[in-house]
């Protein structure tokens, strides 16, 4: 970290140089260049003191852990970082086979969604498409419910809308209570057009991933806010958190950024603090809580993919949703390759494949057939 901040003295630079002569340390060094510096730069929350404290802990942890890893690490060499611009150098690689037509079929994701009204009517939302009716309007970039609309009385029937974001999309919605929700690709949210005064505000993440900034209960007569998803319920008073609960993934991950939340299933209950993540697998009676860097978990709303020793299999799940492609592995072993890096969502899919291929030391190749990516 002192190296990155230009604070290292001559002795420390010499120690770093000696340490990097051991090639096994290069992946550790490269990993923290990206995850501790680049992510913080993009997120705009770089705390030097905190980073210095955490990097030592993480380096020691990685030193212990790397002996246990049985798969090869895919690490971007420090030399391909353009330090002045702090961006990645994307290399053209012959291990990607594709025709121009195939490449052109794969487009970068954008703001788009389908709004399903209470009566079943559907409205396509996206760039250049304005929509307004009742207490809701959209400029094509976001969907906003009028916060000035009077809350429903206890005996009033609630009307529910659904917002579905397809693969290759993302969208923002502001609910009638002022709660802000960012929906990631391949996600669906069900919510009332307005809430009942003084009663629990409840919405459902049917599937997918959502980042929520909840309007405080103090502004709503003490009414708490609950999010239901796949057998899990999250209760909050006013906070920011992320829920990842895709239909093709058996686990649910809930990450707290700010405030306090309670994660509950039929058989377990846990309270999270900031920078903690709850993980629920097939056994709903078990809720695992781990310490994480919340900024990494929510970097997607800032236009970034952040991977920290992520398996290529899991990584391609994330990328396939944003670029709306199918992925086929010819070798199961390739799914276990690990990758660490911070990538911009505005980059073309081919650019990202070139980076992965360039760092795999010739062990991974890609073939693009239509919108199917074959990993060899």
UniProtKB/TrEMBL annotation:
Domain called FecR protein: residue spans: 163-262
Keyword terms: Membrane, Transmembrane, Transmembrane helix
Highest taxon, organism lineage: Bacteria
Segments crossing the lipid bilayer: 70-91
Transmembrane found in the keyword field: yes
Every Protein FecR C-terminal domain range: 305-375
Pfam families: FecR (PF04773), FecR_C (PF16344)
UniProt protein name: DUF4974 domain-containing protein
Annotated organism of origin: Flagellimonas algicola
């Amino acid at each position: 970290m002192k190296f990155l901040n230009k604070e290292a003295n001559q002795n420390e630079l010499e120690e770093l140089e000696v340490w990097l002569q051991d090639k096994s340390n290069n992946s550790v060094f490269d990993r923290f260049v990206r995850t501790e510096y680049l992510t913080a730069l993009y997120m705009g929350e770089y705390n030097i003191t905190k980073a210095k404290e955490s990097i030592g802990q993480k380096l020691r942890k990685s030193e212990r852990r790397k002996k246990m890893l049985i798969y090869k690490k895919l690490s971007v060499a420090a030399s391909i970082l353009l330090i002045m611009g702090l961006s990645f150098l994307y290399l053209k690689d012959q291990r990607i086979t594709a025709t121009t037509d195939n490449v052109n079929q794969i487009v970068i994701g954008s703001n788009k969604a389908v709004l399903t009204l209470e009566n079943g009517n559907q409205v396509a939302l996206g760039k250049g498409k304005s929509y307004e009716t009742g207490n809701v309007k959209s400029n094509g970039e976001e969907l906003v419910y009028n916060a000035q609309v009077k809350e429903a009385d206890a005996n009033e029937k609630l009307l529910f809308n659904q917002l579905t974001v397809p693969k290759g999309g993302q969208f923002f919605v502001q609910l009638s209570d002022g709660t802000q929700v960012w929906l990631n690709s391949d996600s669906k949210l069900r919510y009332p057009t307005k809430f009942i005064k003084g009663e629990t505000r409840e919405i459902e993440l049917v599937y997918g991933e959502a980042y929520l900034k909840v309007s405080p209960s103090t502004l709503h007569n003490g009414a708490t806010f609950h999010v239901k998803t796949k057998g899990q319920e999250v209760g909050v008073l006013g906070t920011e958190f992320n829920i990842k609960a895709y239909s093709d993934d058996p686990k649910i991950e809930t990450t707290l950024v700010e405030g306090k939340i309670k994660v509950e299933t039929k058989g377990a209950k846990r309270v999270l603090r900031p920078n903690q993540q709850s993980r629920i697998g097939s056994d709903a009676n078990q809720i695992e809580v781990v310490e994480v860097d919340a900024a990494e978990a929510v970097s997607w709303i800032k236009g970034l993919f952040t991977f920290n020793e992520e398996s290529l299999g899991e990584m391609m799940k994330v990328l396939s949703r944003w670029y709306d492609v199918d992925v086929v592995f010819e070798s199961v072993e390739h799914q276990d390759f690990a990758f660490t890096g911070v990538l911009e969502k505005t980059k073309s899919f081919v650019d990202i494949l070139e980076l992965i291929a360039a760092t795999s030391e010739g062990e991974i190749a890609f073939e693009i057939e239509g919108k199917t990516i074959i990993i060899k």
